Amino acid sequence: MSFKSELLQRKREVEDALYKYFENKTGFQKTVIESMEYSIKAGGKRLRPILVLEACKLVGGSSDDAMPFACAMEMIHTYSLIHDDLPAMDDDDFRRGKPTNHKVYGDGIAILAGDGLLNMAFEIMLEKVVAAPGVMEKGMKAMHVIAGASGINGMIGGQVVDLESEGKRIEKETLNFIHLTKTSALLEASIMAGAIIGGATESQYRELQNYGRGIGLAFQIIDDILDVVGDETKLGKKVGSDIDNEKSTYPSIYGIEKSKEIAANLLEDSLKSLKVFEEKADFLRDLVEFLRVREY
Question: Second label for 251, Cα 20 to 30 Å away, from 59, 128, 131, 289?
Answer without folding.
Answer: 289
